[in-house]
Amino acid sequence: MAYENILVETRGRVALITLNRPKALNALSSGLFVDLNAALDSFEADENIGCIVLTGSEKAFAAGADIKEMQPYTSVTAYLTDLITPWERVSRNRKPIIAAVAGYALGGGCELAMMCDFIIAADTAKFGQPEINLGVMPGAGGTQRLTRFVGKSKAMDMCLTGRMMDAAEAERSGLVSRIVPADELVDTAMDVAAKIADMSLPAVMMIKESVDRAYETTMSEGVRFERRVFHSLFATEDQSEGMQAFIDKRSPNFRNR
Ligand code: CAA
User: Which UniProt key words apply to this protein (predicted)?
Assistant: First the structure.
């Protein structure tokens, strides 16, 4: 399917979604989310897809919500149109999404990357929550997710001053999982995604769900949830096959992938 604001392709069991509004540095418009959410719906339903990579351009993953679209809004139109809420679809995806970030990931761009399951950054990546410079504040989860990633002090610094964080600081702070040279970004992210997509899909999805639980609940409830989900994996053929393959010193042949 052709989209106006994104490009999609599949390589094996991995789907690659590229934000594609180059003239606006991939500013995140409402139309872009119509496309992105439709693509996620289709990959979620596609049994041949096990992992998704979301990326932008060399210059910008995304420079934030579309300021030109938002400028005329009033609080009434923001409320009535439920501005930003459609973005949350990304964080509810059940299959994993890796954000591959080069260049600017600012405002909603940083927030979108943080809605993904983890972030692989190019050495050119720059993260920031500059909404304060526009007389507003992060509105797509930035005050909550950035604080959980990097802690209160750095989150306050970033959100109150609007300063950018480079890739090295982002890795040091736990915002990104690894840094790679810019020209290797997408290939590296696709390789990582292919590795995940080759695992047993129920195990992958249950791990994702369980790690996400850590943000939503207490330690004891989270551990209890993890234990129940872990027990349920013993109902899968892939548990039996994965453990037998280890004993046989061979690669597992997972059925559910
Ligand atoms: N919305 C709409 N258009 C944007 C945009 C955005 N967030 N960011 C960049 N653009 C447009 C520019 O207006 C410009 O368009 P024209 O050529 O038509 O003038 C084009 O993209 C290129 O941008 P620049 O000329 O500014 O490029 P630059 O290299 O000089 O600067 C930049 C790059 C530092 C990223 C700068 O574009 C910038 O500061 N962008 C805005 C960043 C920002 O404030 N993001 C937060 C948005 S609010 C938000 O996201 C709310 C939320 O939490 C949900």
Answer: Fatty acid metabolism, Lipid metabolism, Lyase
